[in-house]
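Encode chain A's predicted structure.
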Amino acid sequence: MPSKLIVNGDQGRYRINRNIYGHFAEHLGRCIYEGLWVGEGSPIPNTRGIRNDVVAALKKLKIPVLRWPGGCFADTYHWKDGIGPRDQRPSIVNIHWGGVTENNHFGTHEFFDLCEQLGCEPYVCGNVGSGTVQEMSEWLQYITFGGRSPMSDLRAANGRAEPWKIRYWGVGNENWGCGGSMRAEYYADVYRQYQTYLRGEGLEKIACGPNSSDYHWTEVLMREAAWGMSQLALHYYCGTGSESKSATLFGDNDWLCLMRQAWKMEELVTRHSSIMDRYDPARRVGLAVDEWGAWHEVEKGTNPSFLYQQNTLRDAMVAALTLNIFNNHASRVTMGNIAQTVNVLQSMCLTEGEKMVLTPSYHVFAMYTPHQDATLLPTWLECDDLESRGEKFPALSVSASRNAAGKVHLSLCNMSPGQAVELDCDLHGIKASSVSGKILSAPVINAHNTFDKPNAVKPKGFNDARLSGRRLRVSLPAHSVVVLALA
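Encoded structure for chain A:
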């Protein structure tokens, strides 16, 4: 029996916020230094110290928003150490990630330069854990104030007379853990205090949200501080396989285990949203999943604190499944930031000296760009289940949208490691005369790109979709991601 899908083209109500396709760059391992920043004197082609190849690759993703400087690093970062002449900036010891010494050459000015080069919105995460209200409010003034003030004068003295614009500001990171080991009740009061002094036109204040399934944290923050926030940040990492923790050496059981754990995002978003609905029925406060992704063992021979891991077709499936979940919860999910942009965890790019390679996860983000700011189309799916550790979850994942030009895009994941699926689609309320598509797959489930073989996993044209009136028949190969365009 084929699986069945109904796409309701006449029922779209919610816009898929483009920020769902956001990214995260922390001072961790080789993400900032070597990955994004090489310095103006580097032989690696760069613009004002920022590497050109990575910027060019990320621009193709239409990267909407970039979160910085952390992560755990944010609550140890004192922003005044990262401004002024670079040769006069004090060094810092990165206590969370390897105890390495950083020279602070990448700071506020460099971050906003990076965002301008990328054409994306900056998202700054401020220091609550070891900082002060004054320090955070002065940082915001340094960035945004256009008149005369001690902080705007300091900014001008450092070479930037005009203020920058910023919309997204995080009040601490993981304050239940590395950001201060706080209780929800305590952080709620701290958040209320800090947000009072964060003032700026159009500024969206993002509160530290729960760790995975800590529903108590969401309850307390929404009850005590929802009135003072624009978004609440959820963090969830789906881990790795059940038998092998390796990023590249795994079997079907490990594949299924990771799919099951990635599918848990559906439960987390649903349950946290239901709590938020009780306190915010108008859904004014967005759910920002500003750290998410797969977390495997580091590559052999690398610093274990640098979190450098390879990225296979399995990780691409995690990305596709998660983005479908976010799309389908567009009424509440307003931002997502995959961890992390370069050289760390589930990254978009890997670098080695002057070389750069795109990961399978990168290609998923590229294929999904048509969903950005499009109208979500509700879907109904009937398919077989997969099973891992006694838990069942759907073998297929789907989301659909219509863009401003009227074109419908359908993103499909077949999470089975070995079983192809025939999908019978009813395109209700959709008049289409043509279908085209791309597929991301590979002969083996642990396929990945290396500097020697950079194109082992890349999108190809997809021709196994057949359109007849309002019926669409799709043959989905095992372990594949397919995006279709209906025009």
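The chain has a mean pLDDT of 97.
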